[in-house]
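User: Can you fold this complex?
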Amino acid sequence: MSNLNLKIYELNVEQKAIRDGFGEGVIEAGEKNKNVVALCTDLKESTRVDGFAKKWPERFFELGVAEQNMASVAAGMAAMGKIPFIASYAIFSPGRNWEMIRTTICYNNTNVKVVGAHAGLNVGPDGGSHQMLEDIALMQVLPKMTIIVPCDALEAKKATLAIAELVGPAYLRLAREKSPVVTTDESPFKIGQAEVLIESDQAEAVIIACGLMVYRALISARKLEQEGIKVSVINNHTIKPLDEKTILVAAQKAGAIVTAEEHQQAGGLGSAIAEFLAKTNPVPIEFVGVADRFGQSGEPAELLEHYGLGVDDIIEAVKKVTKRKNGN
Amino acid sequence: MILTDDKLKYLEDKAKNIRRSIISMLVEARSGHTAGALGMADIFTALYFGLLNHDPKKPDWPERDRVILSNGHICPVLYATLAEAGYIEKKELATLRQYGSRLQGHPHREFLPLAETSSGPLGEGLAQAVGMALADRIDNVATRLAGGQASQRFFYCLMSDGELDEGSTWEAMMLAGKEKPHNLIAIIDRNNIQIDGHTEDVMPLEPLADKWRAFGWQVTEIDGHSFPEIFDAVGMAKSVFNRPSVIIAHTTPGKGVPEFENKFEWHGKPPTKEEGDKAIKEI
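Assistant: Here's the predicted assembly.
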């Protein structure tokens, strides 16, 4: 299992912010293709485009606090052959500028990459106003949009390089807080291809997670195994287009699914999977995600616990979905 | 270009043809926007039959000037002008707003790649035009560094006055004021009407020229139906090398058809067959 960092079960597992992976990736993408440009709305350092800006000042644009403008300006640049990465916090982009993304990026089918940093509860002390929990839903309903939620910094870097080569609109969701690196340099990354991290023929259920929740899913699986309950774990980094094949096989084999994401339960990864399986192979599903509420100030870990996104919540969801599968 | 009497007559004839096409296609479509399309016919004529560097035989020519139509609802004038210039067949104009037509109710690039952008939702064209001009600048700097010949492209953004209510327009104005793309020329259809009435009643825009000037733009105000004034203003805008330019073109909504002129109720409705026949005779 070279695609899984086996140190994740140790206390000294490497911690790195997912956004840092984007910062490295966008520089490498810029080296590979001179048409890659970056735009930012007064959040250069915290979205990690500062390295790109320093290296290629002529290919970087500071737009001030104006996310609507950023989306449309990028669409214009893309119409002239550029590959713009537009970086802001997810609450503002794609939050505030959704209609510009719809009309000037997706409806026009322009080659713009929307990078939403500081998504999810892990923003922590800044509070609910900045904890974007609706962005996947907003992007998921847009035709032509590809959505990627990397699970760690390494995967964020690979995802950044991959969307730079993809022709068409893409949304990359980033987290602020440092988090365990669960993949390795050798782990494959392909847009639209979910990675099975733990596979068990005797799995009672399969946990399908994205973003920071992949680590929690892996820890849950380890704990469940100690209780004698086997599960499979899938890192579903691409929400759209969904890897229907992998999900269908997993659903058929395990017969029960738990989804885990740092997002509202509505409109996120879980919704996408439920919609797909309802049409193809309905199985019981439990959704680990925020239950129609806004966040609040606090430390990332305590917020995840408070809103039902902890390891124990996943374990409970696995037990519940297994009971449902077995009809009791 | 020198506007000789012959050239003026040529432009006036083209504008009349375009206005007649607009009326015919709106009558056929039974929905669409009449006033703004007629009001901008002279500016479209001046651009496509005198000012633009373009070639209808090579619509993908990378060096072409770009026309970004921000207020997509006046697209009958764009479609009619493209037909008059030979980009599309005139008979296709009759398909406006119909199922399967390339001539969507508001321009959609997926259907009609001749449109430089899709538009309809207001307040987004200027930002895209700024983005195009900035991308052009990146390429030109790189080309010059490599000892090559920089491109001479201009980016014309056609906008309505009503859409200046949109905050996103002002964000784009501010960015252009900062970055100073000299080859960006915005042309505002200052016809003083929008859906709910007179622009100064709905949301006052004046002093409009002062506002643009304060944002760092070169401003010219003209009669949008005078070819000499349009040509002079664009000529001046092209000669300014240290900032973007805006031309506030005072136009008469519904221009060319006395019954439609200056009546905001003609913003969003088409003429009936009878009204259309009468209008075409009057043009």
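Chain B touches chain A through 32 residues (CB under 8 Å). DSSP finds ten helices and seven strands in chain B.
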